[in-house]
Amino acid sequence: MCNLYIDKDKNSYMYVGQSVKRKEDLKFITGTGRYVDDIEIPGNLYIAILRSKVAHAKLKKVDYTDTLKLKGVYGVITGLTIPVENRPRNFPMAKDEILYVGHPIAAVLATDRYTAADALDYITYEYEELPAIIDPEEAINSKVKAVEDKDNVIYKRTYSAGNPEEAYDKSDVKIEEKIVISRVYQAPMETRGLVVDFQQGKLTVYASTQSPHYMRSFLLSAFGDKVSDIRVVQADVGGAFGAKMFPYPEDYIAVYAAITYRRPVKLINTRKDDMLSTYPSRGQIHKVKVGASKDGKINAIIDDLIIDLGAAWHGSYLADITGSLITGPYDIRNAKVNIFGVLTNKTPLDQYRGAGRPEAAFVYERIMDIVADELKMDPIEIRRKNLIQSTPYTNPFGLKYDSGDYKALLAKAESFYREMEQRAQELRKQGRRVGVGLSFYIEQNNFGPWESASVRLLSNGKVEVIIGAAPHGQGSETGVAQIVADELGINIDDVFVVWGDTDKISNAFGTYGSRSLTLAGNAALIATKKLKENIMKIAAAFMNVDVEELQYKDGKVINPKTGQVMTLKEIAEKVTSNVGGLWPYKAEPTLEATASFGLDNYTFPYGSHIAMVEVTEEGLVKVLDYVAIDDIGLVVNPMLAEAQVHGGIIQGLGEVLLEEMIYDNKGNLLTSTFADYPLPTAAEAFNMKWIYMEVGKSNAPIPSKGIGEGAPIGAPPAIVRAIEKATGKRITRLPVKIEDLAL
Ligand code: MCN
What we know:
This protein is of the alpha+beta class. Helix content is 29%, strand content 25%.
């Protein structure tokens, strides 16, 4: 049973605004979820991938004669290349040039997964090693090429506004810093994988993806001439965090194998495979110059942004997101960002929760604190001095921040900061190394372009909602059901939200960019309104009156004059019964409506995080207290939103203290297991409080903005500042190294 109560302030809603318990959890807590590895198609073959152990080489020959002799081995694929925009030249497999450790070289198909994995040992490959370039800064001027015939600086773009050089020169205080944000692995609990069901001419792909429709578009452009359609079905997904958005080599190899061998196939990454081959994220270096006046006003930011793209240039869009947000929530009119997108012999780069915005926030919030320190200013004062005064506001690079009251949110944050600072002072008097940090950040979300939803009244009177978004842990089933249940005035237990099947809804996008509630939720709302209109017409026909005479209330159509009432169930039953009869009414007997919804501007939530930490003599960090405040417009379900914030803060903690993809100078990934790549666990977790404002509404009918990524944006700068205050050591690198914090 869900919680059910009415909020007087939101009296038009029954469920929206309430912490309704998650509808999606029962199957998981009863062990009946179905992940892609739970799916078996009779006769499916298993695929294992042989990955390069060298970072850069000319592949001369692959020999798999002995492999084919093994019992249970069905075939070997080598040299498969399919041109896909922005992907490495040799995609999905190294045909001639090997570009990174982990680059697929061969794929074995076998009757079971163990045979497939063992068979990899029987493949040999000859290669001529080429010099590899691993460090992105070195790559900029190096004669060594990461990818033959390509400039290492593969992507260049400058964002410039005002007169940054002049403003910098004239500034009272000038600061130069190098800020490093390491590469990190998204670390979903479930690794990537897919099962491809081959039936003459038709392919069904079951995948661990966050966008089945996007996957289908990519696969259709590669294999569309060989099949009539590709249906992509999203299995239950054990987290994605941005890593399961765009298709990978494994997806193409599996689909190719199914079509070529005319057999269903299955490919599930081991953790090591996943860490080597999933496109990691962040990987930015900022060489920043900041000019400020004595009173703390920031006059100019000039930033050389180097992004380590790995062996393909797909990830350059992340630098654009960072660059265009480098002034954050502050009114800084002179700004310049020179982007250098650099190729290296490492796994290509992609997004991780926050996708470019955490990197920007880390830079602009470091700037605020460093300038405050230089001027001996209070960190709240410097932020207040620079904060955007009113919205809408167009930032120097043309992004229109839509709505909100930043000053009011900072004032709320200040009260927590001051209170924690007082406590910290007491603890410092006892000789403990305790510090408090605050961050203020702007989010950009609802990356579109639009999302779709269909709403169906079933013959049992219950309602099925199909959304184009593809949630995988966020809780959107509950959020969207709240919206639809309110619009129909029915019990939320009678609303079922489904998703993740390209056969159920034709065009859609998926879950990314903290968009699902706002775009899919509003599409569902509009579809529900359309459905309601038709239900009214059908009811009018059944009651033999004009539709204008009828009213709709709480799942019933009422004729106030006669007192006649028809429930949704009665209407649905009457429409769907009487097989073989006639339909003597003008109203169309359609119990389904579809709608799509998009916004003409991104939405810009904003927020503040406040952290109090203690650092031990050995350099261990413990978070003592934590408060996060967000304004995301209308909060549909505070419990779901808060859960997003909790998870995001812990991920932020991981980025600050633990997580880093470390490569040696030959391009070997030294952190390819969870033994070398620690993640924060329940042991590192701490109490946190979440507070929300609902001032900055979006223009959508349900005036929400996203919350899925705010916390990993706000957490790192707040935690880092707290550590900095506790230790007195300036921090300009993520993750922080324990040895740098020890006494
Ligand atoms: N919500 C709400 N009120 C709002 C906005 C959202 O109640 N005004 C609720 C929604 O109902 C939903 C949740 O908050 O339950 C997040 O919704 P939204 O902000 O629309 O974000 P998305 O559903 O689009 O999620 C995407 C976002 C991204 S981009 C990443 S990456 C991420 C994240 O969500 N990956 C996740 N959170 C994750 N959480 C889990 N468990 N697993 C992942 O892989």
